[in-house]
Amino acid sequence: MSMLVVVTESVPFRLRGRLAVWMLEVRAGVYVGDVSKRIREMIWEQITELAEQGNVVMAWATNSESGFEFQTYGQNRRMPVDLDGLRLVSFYPVENQ
């Protein structure tokens, strides 16, 4: 079991309800729980099936150098990058409006 955090933006209510079955919604769109790897993978499958045009980041505790791993779904200015085995976040430039 490990700590899991999921942050959602602009996702359908049915996904938010599904996440609330497994985790506690501590703020609107922010879910926290202590789940197994199998449950974490099942939650990610639900996210990829139900998030539609929204975006999601999921982070969990690991024994890596940073102490956590994360993955993202949907469009966002932040994109994960791998730098010599360390996961960091890079930003896409702001589009001209």
List keywords for this structure.
alpha+beta; Alpha-Beta Plaits; five-stranded antiparallel sheet; 25% helix; 44% strand; CRISPR-associated protein Cas2; CRISPR-assoc_prot_Cas2_sub
- Tell me the distance between the termini: 45 Å
How would you characterize the largest beta sheet?
Answer: 5 strands, antiparallel
Tally of helical runs:
2
Unreliable segments (pLDDT under 50, ≥5 consecutive)? none
Mean pLDDT: 90
Q: What's the shape?
A: globular
InterPro entries: CRISPR-assoc_prot_Cas2_sub
Organism: Oceanimonas baumannii
Protein name: CRISPR-associated protein Cas2
How would you characterize this protein structure?
With 97 residues, the chain is α+β, with helices and mostly antiparallel strands. The chain has one domain (2-91): Alpha-Beta Plaits (2-Layer Sandwich). Helix content is 25%, strand content 44%. It contains two helices and seven strands, in the order βαββαββββ. It has helices at 13-22, 37-50, and strands spanning 2-9, 24-27, 30-35, 55-61, 68-73, 78-83, 86-91. A five-stranded antiparallel β-sheet has the order 2-3-1-4-5, covered by helices on one side. The radius of gyration is 14 Å and the shape is globular. The termini are far apart.
Task: Write a brief structural summary.
Pfam families: Cas_Cas2CT1978. This protein has helices at residues 13-22, 37-50; strands at 2-9, 24-27, 30-35, 55-61, 68-73, 78-83, 86-91.
Write the layout of secondary structure elements.
Layout: E1 2-9, H1 13-22, E2 24-27, E3 30-35, H2 37-50, E4 55-61, E5 68-73, E6 78-83, E7 86-91
Antiparallel strand pairs: 1-3, 1-4, 2-3, 4-5, 6-7
